[in-house]
């Protein structure tokens, strides 16, 4: 198990590959940062492996949840006096105990002592009195990359030849594999806007904690920039990441690991949790689930994966070296990956329970 370096009482200081191992006890959740180099005229696939603890709340469910179509509403124990909808839309509930432990749900409304969440297909009956949870604020384009930041070069206008840096969000809703981005945004001196609607203010576009995004520098960007992610380290024992499947072919899931350290494949708990179907052999027609990794050190847009891994039921295997053992291959901090799920009989969503190695 890796140890995390603590500076002072509550700051997690992360350098380079995050291999520092000195540790001291801390009484609050540690905070820290990671850095990734974003090459010029290239795509960099990244995530935010930290929590945004702005206005966060820790509480528990009081009484039974009430169903309202696709939503559920419940009372928060020990919380009162909230302004109506002050946590709506830009905040989410993450359960820290109970049946839904580790799951994330966007808040649609809140009252003085209650919240209503979008269930994403789950049942309100899965929420029971006493279940603990935390409320966190989503990272947004504007909060992560405000005007004048050092990562995203501001475009000089709306036309294609005036665009410098863009953020591309992956498509996690369409069936199949190798999807085009769901949306593209770029930053001007006046703020973020949508590639398909340049009059739209996109500063509050949310970045989900279990997926990645792409920083694309166009050919107008002359030199590399640095993406620095900062925030609170997630120390909770369980994060649940949904993985979609379908009945008539493979399904790509564009995900990230919410941990600010490098992680070995055999530390992912992906196969061990039953979330990753092992292959029956090394040949292409025997492959089942696959894990695709991208190299941010390669200068290119629309990159092909640099590595594809599968599991043979005993250990991880590199597609390019099927006789080797890839258990200790590294997924870098802040890196996005694709989990390509093999078809299933029922097309059900499978939840990957990821636990920290620190």
From TrEMBL:
InterPro entries: CHP02597
Domain of life: Bacteria
Protein species of origin: Rubritalea tangerina
Entry protein name: TIGR02597 family protein
Keywords linked to the UniProt accession: Signal
Cleaved signal peptide residues: 1-25
């Amino acid at each position: 198990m890796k140890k995390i370096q603590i500076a002072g009482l509550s700051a997690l200081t992360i350098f380079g590959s995050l291999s520092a191992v000195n540790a001291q006890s801390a009484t609050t959740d540690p905070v820290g940062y990671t850095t990734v180099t974003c090459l010029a005229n290239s795509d960099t696939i990244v995530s935010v492996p930290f929590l945004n603890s702005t206005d966060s709340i820790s509480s528990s469910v009081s009484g039974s949840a009430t169903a309202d179509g696709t939503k559920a509403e419940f009372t928060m124990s020990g919380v009162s006096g909230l302004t109506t909808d002050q946590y709506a839309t830009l905040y989410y509930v993450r359960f820290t105990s109970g049946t839904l432990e580790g799951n994330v749900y966007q808040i649609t409304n809140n009252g003085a002592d209650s919240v209503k969440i979008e269930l994403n297909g789950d049942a309100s009956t899965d929420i029971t009195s006493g279940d603990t949870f935390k409320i966190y604020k989503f990272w947004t384009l504007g909060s992560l990359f405000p005007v004048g930041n050092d990562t995203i070069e501001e475009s000089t206008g709306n036309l294609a030849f005036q665009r410098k840096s863009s953020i591309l969000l992956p498509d996690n809703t369409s069936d199949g594999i190798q999807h085009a981005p769901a949306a593209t945004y770029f930053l001007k001196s006046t703020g973020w806007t949508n590639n398909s609607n340049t009059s739209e203010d996109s500063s509050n576009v949310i970045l989900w904690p279990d997926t990645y995004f792409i920083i694309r520098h166009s050919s107008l960007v002359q030199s590399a920039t640095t993406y620095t992610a900062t925030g609170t380290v997630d120390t909770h024992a369980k994060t649940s990441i949904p993985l979609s499947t379908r009945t008539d072919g493979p399904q790509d899931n564009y995900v990230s690991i919410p941990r600010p350290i490098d992680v070995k494949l055999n530390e992912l708990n992906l196969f061990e949790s039953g979330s990753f179907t092992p292959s029956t052999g090394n040949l292409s027609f025997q492959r089942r689930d696959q894990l695709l990794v991208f190299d941010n050190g390669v200068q290119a847009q629309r990159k092909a994966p640099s590595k594809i891994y599968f599991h043979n039921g005993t250990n991880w295997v590199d597609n390019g070296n099927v006789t080797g053992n890839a258990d200790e291959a590294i997924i870098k901090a802040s890196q996005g990956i694709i989990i390509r799920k093999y078809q299933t009989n029922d097309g059900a969503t499978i939840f990957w329970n990821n636990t920290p190695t620190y």
